[in-house]
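re: ur question from earlier - yeah i can do the single chain one, its not a big deal. heres the input i used so u can compare w yours
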Amino acid sequence: MVAEAMLMAFAESVDAADVDGLAELFWLDDQRFAAIGDAIAEPFGRAALVELLASLHAQGQPGDATSWRDVRAHRLGPDVGYVIARQRRGDTWAWATLILLKKGREWGLLHCSFAVPLRRGQG
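and the output i got, formated as tokens:
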């Protein structure tokens, strides 16, 4: 339930171009926070995500409606879980992985990665 709620909150924030709402989903103050994107050469942390969110905030335009399929959520313990899902990007579906961490009574995202599937002959 928590995983699906986090996915929905993530999608709603992206769809509405709600950068502040999106930032609130992440545990940005946790030194373990990291993200991976297929358009970015290496994993990035808090500073790069804050910069990315600021540039999105400056654009201020809602994005395309985000949709998910093949959602699989797994709990690793009482305070940790992860979600694997496919997110629609235009005409393609990208794999997304979100790692969720519970601190006190709240859940947040400690890690996210997004990758467009490789076509044959790539990588």
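Residues 80 and 101 are 5 Å apart (CA to CA). not sure if urs matches, ping me
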